[in-house]
Amino acid sequence: MGINEEPLMWVEKYRPKNLDEVIGLHDIVESLKAFMRNPKTMPHLMLTGVPGTGKTTIALAIAHELYGKNWRNFTLELNASDERGIDTVRDRIKDFSRYSRSGFGDIPFALIILDESDQMTGPAQTALRRIMEIGSRTSRFILICNQSSKIIEPIQSRCAIFRFSRVDRQAMKEHLQEIAKKEKVELQPEAAERIVEYSEGDLRHAINALQTAAAYKEGVVDEKTVSLVIGEASPIQVQKMIRKALYGDFMESRKTMYEIMGSYGFSGSEIIRQIQRELFKMSDITPEQKADLSNIIGEYDYRLTQGANSDIQLSALLAQFAKYGKDIEENYAAK
Amino acid sequence: MQRNESLWVEKYRPKKKEDIMGNEEAKELFVEWLKNKRHTKKAVLLYGPPGVGKTALVNAVANEFNYNVIEMNASDTRSEKAINLLAKPATSYTALDNFTKTKETKGNVLFLDEVDGIAGNEDRGGVNAIIKIVEKSLVPVIMAANNPEIDKLRPLKKVCLLIRFQQVRIPLVIALLQKICITENIKAEFEALERIAQNSRGDVRSAINDLQSLSEENHILTIQDTIILNSRNKDISMDDTLRGFFSAQSIAEASNLLRYSNVDYDEFILTVSDNLPKRYSNNEELSCAYDYVSQADVFRGRVGFENWHLLKYFYNSLAQAAAVNPNSYKPFTFITPPIKIITLFWTKSKRTILGNICNKIGVKCHVSQDKAKSEFVPFIKSMLDKKKAHPILAWFNFTAEEVNFLNEMKRF
């Protein structure tokens, strides 16, 4: 399997290879290009923003800009949510900097991309700060995260911070059309609209939906297909779990939770993220109720990071939902 | 084949130090001390979790180097008097000993097992007596303990060489179990042995005991046979504690109970969480009780593996969950062992395959495994539904097993 082999997932196939190819994000690209003209001046970077807005793409593009097509030899990609603990992170960084110490050509450092760095605990971040200090002569860090507020101050102050906002709807539509054109698929405007709606500014999500829809019908993507794909890809088990809880059937709801955790191995924080997302899509709950429920989710999301057992925290959350559900029923009865 | 009547833990007790699994460093340190380094520290304290070979090492090495072991353990009282009665003669009359000694024996060693079991009141002065004995002793003094952090033992640590034992690594336990199975002519599935080993948490003694009791009936041991492990290992006190806990009339009662019960609290909180909906059928009460359990879990997180003094807050929160509405208590049968443990166990192979799939996606598409799972797998599955041999399968390098898994899997 060659590295240069043509990627078949469109998210990879159409991922910009260098900064010039990146569309939108004009301000960010311009400041980064200034660093590229004199790489020695490049500080540690922190890229922060909601998912699918181009953070990883920018990080990889920087790697391309710095080291050309051999970028993989000088770049260590780590994902904090995959690595078990700070010790593995430390070891991998140590091993890496051992053999790529001197950097490449004029560039006196190697690049370490740490994705989802806000998944690290406080103590782990403190350790990371130390690692960054020790390694700063020989390597530059690009920290990627969804929320910069979850990163401890001392790390933030060591980085140049770039904030990514949601991809603009119009820009996203144009981008999808462009991909469709290159793939010789007709993307109908209503279908594009539906994808954009669904993806909530997450380009990765949008492109995945487009590619899947394109696999359904030869040469054309229409709204019906898109709706079908979205329906299939939505987390039905999570929806079922929320509904059962809100209808007061705690036992069934918890059974589903154990199934999601057990069979699919989703982490507690990922399930909470999906609960939050699915809840806001539910049309039979008023905005006020959503706000109330969201407060509950927030509380248990926090406890999850502090506690020892994510299944206990999720059970407690579902119990709160079951209690709240009674109020919803009463509201219906009142109407 | 005639089944041996004896306990396997006795039958397979290590005869030489090489028979003891794992803890190579500790073994070496101990032998080195006994042979050459006794002038540096007069006594040695072996510490570590139960069943990893501390006592076995002492007996095996003594056997190998021909020492007589004079042993006291937790079942004996250890007041100063009792210790002196046995230990003093054993440690001082070397001359007399020399007289009876044949060519082979090198004399006595005094072995005090489970010294952390010295309890405050009954064993008044016990620690001091031990220290005195160590100071005066003419023979090697060996001690063993599970938990060397107990305050009372602090003075001991000054006069002893400390040697730490760790849990025996699971593969080593499995290897030992396999050996026993061959000798005992038992056909055991590897998964079954793996499960026994994992359940023992590196406690070789309990692993051997489990193996013996599970395969007593016949010569075949399957993974199905091991499912009762959790419920059986947990002594009766778990059920008793649960019953007392859920029927408690007040927070104080529940909290007292927790303080005196010796159930594993990590397992206990999971079990409480599982049984809560059976205790409170009213969602109002249930959510209230769960809130306390959730807080208890947060305290458990803060306790971690060092801040043990925070444990009282953990108990306190948990006790509150017991007494949300004492009047509504009706007896019920408990859900044990913890659902989480059972679910995670039965679904392990599924998760492993999905994990491998997501790992491949993660590497190719620069996302975490969690993201791959939630944002790529559903789409890839849809594409597969439309086109069985979709080229992306080859691009991701999925194995036939993985492709099959994607095809068959239930959507989440």
Please characterize this protein's 3D structure.
The complex is a heterodimer of chains A (335) and B (412). Chain A is 59% helix and 10% strand. Chain A is an alpha/beta fold and 335 residues long. Chain A folds into three domains: 10-164, Rossmann fold (3-Layer(aba) Sandwich); 169-233, Helicase, Ruva Protein, domain 3 (Orthogonal Bundle), CATH 1.10.8; 236-324, Up-down Bundle (Zinc Finger, Delta Prime, domain 3). In chain A, strands 2-3-4-1-5 form a five-stranded parallel β-sheet, with helices on both faces. Chain A has a two-stranded parallel sheet with strand order 6-7. In chain A, α6 (122-135) links the parallel β3 and β4. Chain A is globular and about 70 Å long. Chain B has 412 residues and is an alpha/beta fold. Chain B has four domains: 23-164, Rossmann fold (3-Layer(aba) Sandwich); 170-230, Helicase, Ruva Protein, domain 3 (Orthogonal Bundle), CATH 1.10.8; 236-339; 348-408, no CATH class. Chain B is 57% helix and 7% strand. Chain B contains 21 helices and seven strands. Chain B has helices spanning 8-11, 24-35, 54-65, 80-92, 94-100, 126-136, 154-159, 170-184, 190-200, 204-214, 229-233, 236-246, 251-260, 265-279, 283-303, 311-322, 339-346, 348-365, 369-386, 391-396, 400-408; strands spanning 43-47, 68-72, 108-112, 141-145, 160-164, 187-188, 220-221. Chain B has a five-stranded parallel β-sheet with strand order 2-3-4-1-5, with helices on both faces. The chains are: A alpha/beta (335), B alpha/beta (412). At the A-B interface, α10, α11, α12, α13 and α15 of A face α14, α15, α17, α18 and α19 of B.
